[in-house]
Design goal:
rod-shaped, 42% helix, 7 strands, 3 helices, alpha+beta, five-stranded mixed barrel
Amino acid sequence: MSIGLLYIALLIFGVLFAMMSGAMGWLSDLGGGDIHVDASGHLDTGHAHPISGTIVAVFVTGFGAGGTLGHYLLKWGTVGSLLLATGSGLVLATAAFLVLDLIFSQTQAGSEFAADAMIGRTAEVTTPIPENGAGEVAFEIKGQHESASARSIDGTAVGRGRLVVIEKVTGATVHVRAAEAGKVGPGRSQ
């Protein structure tokens, strides 16, 4: 097999991989299901990983396309076509990574927040908290109105409409204390 045929094979493989990936996504949308194959596509929430299936496939496609151009159209030797293939693969993979990273960072920047981000935040009791019992509080975080099950940190009853400060988070329950007049945490002023 000549190097030219290898370039063409890699180009075809990359294009077929992209078409198959797109078709699988489209088919999963039709069925209402979720087909998810993760080849380490995320470094962390909201960021693409530079070594993912998509980026590798783009590199392979660019490598095949650059090699085919160098070998057949420009009539370069093996070293020249390999350099063009490698360069075009890297350029296309880098461009794909940057585009995907931008898309992920924009679409993943939702209203999720860490539980400890609630600590110190002022909330309003929406369902009274009985003595040694649970009620509910509402608060604002990341521009969203949220609510959570709540217990008084010292076990005392807290009436509806009272302002409280979230002291501790245990699972889905927040532990609160009554807010002092004029001293409220972030998210609410008096």
